[in-house]
Amino acid sequence: MAQRSGDDSGTPSRPDFDQEIELLALLEDPVRRSLYVHVSRHGGYVSRDEAASAVGIARALAAFHLDRLADEGLLDTIYRRPPGRTGQGAGRPAKLYTRSRRQVNVSLPPRHYELIAGLLASALDQDLPERISGDLTKAAHRAGAALAVEARKLAGRRPNRRRLIEAGLEVLWRQGYEPHRSGPEIQLSNCPFDAVAQRHRELVCPVNLAMLEAFAGDLNVKELAPRLEYRDDGCCVAFRVGNRTETAAAP
Q1: CATH top class, domain 17-99
Q2: DSSP-derived secondary structure letter, 191
Q3: Within 13 Å, how many C-alpha atoms sit on residue 58's CB side?
Q4: CB–CB of 241/164 below 8 Å?
Q5: Bridge partners (DSSP) listed for residue 94
Q6: Does residue 226 register a pLDDT over 70?
Q7: Do 247 and 218 contact (CB within 8 A), yes or no?
Q8: What is the pLDDT of residues 47-89, one digit of tens each?
Q9: Rounded CA separation 41/51 (Å)
Q10: pTM of the model
Q11: So where are the chain's domains?
Q12: Residue-wise over 164-176: b if at least 16 C-beta within 10 A, else e?
């Protein structure tokens, strides 16, 4: 999750409007925007050479745009030698880039959805009746099923299991989860509900899990299992993917 903002009352603070516009303006350049998207989708640290190759530009140009994004706080950087190269003669450490936790939100005219969501969550957090809890779960299941429908349409006719998973991950990306595969695990690097989840985890995370359970179930990919995995640097839900290789046909 991103760093908490706001005062002790639970009301989120509003970032400076001009600063937010200036940060968005950085991404107006299509090359810079492509680099930012590539680094974000990568999920880890990316070198200048890797980014330049992925976008199809010269290394020097990639370095210029990456450094500009880092200077403005949209990317984080570290210096690290390539794997296996240590000691004298290993060369200078390379500068690597990853997406920062900084959030940019601009609405014209200004909207305060996070504020009303936080107020509603505060009211529900006090003592959630069983009927309301059940209604929330049902609503979450409907939302997850709708995401699965979108993924199956994206996967095309009679997709195999791999294509269904790829389409599912793309839909989750579009929803802001930033999924990344790591062996049999799928980590969700971003929480789309971060501003509310920070203060109301016990309310938001089970609803999020219910939605993604319905998503996985309706996607009909065997052994795609979501679970709660509380983290401070991402979503509270993670997936484990089994090793089955059979195909899963769309209806």
Answers
A1: mainly alpha
A2: -
A3: 3
A4: no
A5: 80
A6: yes
A7: no
A8: 999 999 999 999 999 999 999 999 999 999 999 876 655 555 5
A9: 11
A10: 0.72
A11: 17-99, 127-241
A12: bbbbbbebbbebe
